[in-house]
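Our preliminary data section would be incomplete without showing what the modeling component actually yields. Below, a chain of 317 amino acids is followed by its predicted structure, encoded as tokens that our downstream tools consume directly.
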Amino acid sequence: MTIDILMPRPMLPIVQEQLDARYTVYRLYEAEDPDAMLAEIGPKVRGIAMAFGPVNAALLSKLPNAEILSSFGVGYDHINTDDCLAAQVMVTHTPDVLTEEVADTALGLMLMTVREFGQAERWLRQGNWEAKGPYPLTQGTLRGRTLGIFGLGRIGKAIAARAEAFGMSIRYFGRRRQDDVTYPYHERLVDLAKACDTLMVVAPGGPETHHAVNADVLEALGSNGIIINVGRGTVVDEAALTEALKAGTIQGAGLDVFEAEPHVPPALLELPRVTVLPHVGSASQATRNAMGQLVVDNLNAWFETGKAVTPVPEMGG
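Predicted structure:
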């Protein structure tokens, strides 16, 4: 007898093909009536493979024999881990395999934002170089900048190592002081903003970080300030950010994530010194395949040994 797996949303071929070969996979997104499908197959489901979407007590109540939720992505703020613990459902995610890719993206986005490379490219493509002359000198430069990192986890440390190679000095704020680094630590985010001119947001989402980057933090960052967000869109108050950019409270912003993806506030897009990307931090084929493989590996390990490869911290990871 095979093990029954629920797949609420489509996943990469590397995931779907391997799971199909080993398990009985129910694709909820293909059902004409998802609620009817859950009522029929819910009690049989022992594992869940998913990329996005909320997981809470309401869903878990329909899957009374679920043992593991193997989630695609390092962030898991869409999963209520307290509900999963109460239901005795193991939760896993896909850290490490995307660290270097996201760190590369963060540095690229920072360079694009400070030096306005995206705007300069559009200047050329629109024929302005030939018609109007060179792109205007950028007000920003990476020279002499201090990088403040909000969230010095795996990705934050990889970003710091790259930024040091660019000659930047590093400071950080997070839930706790890190024993394995010598960068100055700040007890409050607003203090970090005062001490740097480039704020790199790598913090996870969730209630604890919701709108942590607010008007006060942006004011502390100052008129030469640049904010880069490769963490979660909910960490930054987008309304406050828009007002700070309009007023010149800060100089510019580079955003790979947004509060209500895929919606991006039009007011942000209209501002001249804003660089935006469509949440592509880890979006290379190689990295996404590695993440997908870890989804499969977590399920296989659980049903073979009773242990997960990469449980989330709340589960002992």
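The chain has two domains: 4-95+286-315, 99-276. Residues 285-305 form the longest helix (21 residues). Preliminary results of this kind motivate Aim 1 of the renewal.
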